[in-house]
């Protein structure tokens, strides 16, 4: 059976046989096109043999505006109410998270498609997950797997799935307007459906290197990177990564930086610090 529209922006694929239940999200950030484009190519003709798969355009308001966020970051809205500000709880994205939660709760595994806004170089595609995703992520078209995000940057869709005893997987497919990233998003979806048992077909394992995130740096005043870092760029102990107000921000030990961004104001996410595990 082909996809049916069950409510606005939510499509259901149902196999003729019973089986697993999965959710695939695109457009959590509305300007990240690869997952959205993959949905547009796949949904008109895609069929599965077993189980149920919900394909959801996660953040349609930001998709219409071609913006990352409308009033808040949807991928921080899956924490408890007590962990969020009053402004966050009043946002459109908070409301949208409540809409999405029943679909996440009704599935065993989530695949959330993202893309990078890193402006320099060619962003390295990678998987974000925890150890519970082993057995699935080895078949996704990525050579880097990063864990630890649930601890250092909670509130995402994958965080929520892990928190409720399910499996959450997020994939960063490359630069958000790169055609290769769009094709990688499509391959990720198809491989995911096969390894989950929704579809027949051969799928190969990928050689993967694991890393762990240890620190999310939040600004005190504002942050200016020391240079244009590429994602996963290695740094040494004590290396100046940027300035926060008048103070130098240095690497706590040897490792790498991820998503370094210029930020205005206090309490903003400036960069992540991690280390290779393998």
UniProtKB/TrEMBL annotation:
<dbReference type="GO" id="GO:0046872">
    <property type="term" value="F:metal ion binding"/>
</dbReference>
<keyword id="KW-0862">Zinc</keyword>
<protein>
    <recommendedName>
        <fullName>Succinylglutamate desuccinylase/Aspartoacylase catalytic domain-containing protein</fullName>
    </recommendedName>
</protein>
<dbReference type="InterPro" id="IPR050178">
    <property type="entry name" value="AspA/AstE_fam"/>
</dbReference>
<dbReference type="GO" id="GO:0016788">
    <property type="term" value="F:hydrolase activity, acting on ester bonds"/>
</dbReference>
<keyword id="KW-0479">Metal-binding</keyword>
<keyword id="KW-0378">Hydrolase</keyword>
<feature type="domain" description="Succinylglutamate desuccinylase/Aspartoacylase catalytic">
    <location>
        <begin position="19"/>
        <end position="175"/>
    </location>
</feature>
<dbReference type="InterPro" id="IPR055438">
    <property type="entry name" value="AstE_AspA_cat"/>
</dbReference>
<dbReference type="Pfam" id="PF24827">
    <property type="entry name" value="AstE_AspA_cat"/>
</dbReference>
<dbReference type="GO" id="GO:0005829">
    <property type="term" value="C:cytosol"/>
</dbReference>
